[in-house]
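Following the same procedure, backbone shapes were mapped to integers, as reproduced here:
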Amino acid sequence: MKAKDKASHPGTKRRVVAESASWLALVAATSLGIPHAETVRAEIKLPPEAFESGGRYRLIVQSYDTLGRASLIPSGRPRASTQRTVTPADLVDGVRIDLIELGDTEASPERRVIAWVEPGEADLEFDARRAKPMPGSFYGVAPSGNEAREAIEIVLDRRVRPV
């Protein structure tokens, strides 16, 4: 009976991984040899009264294992990052983002997802790994230790202070 239990366990594990991972995470794990790939889903919102004008905005989302200090953005490299051009209407409705974390180890249980919005459009640095928020940018931070794989909600309800 123990042999039967062992035989059913690997199939269950594969099914759980397949349900929680995106196609890119699966390609990274199987083709590129990256030992750990995970999808973090986030929904980013900004209250409508926060906008001073219409136009287009650059939304940046990054995940970090831990924030360490109380500072806004750690000095280290983010675990995952992306950027997108959005409109005020998009942010009021909520923008869904999938971050693909690739690394040698699993993410820390203290992992945080940081998002901010600033005037302008997404630039040529597709993944925005080196991006840092500008003074005046609206930002939000949320823990991402979500076992249900549901989207975490980040409300951009803080502002980066001028230096």
The first strand starts at residue 36 and ends at 45.
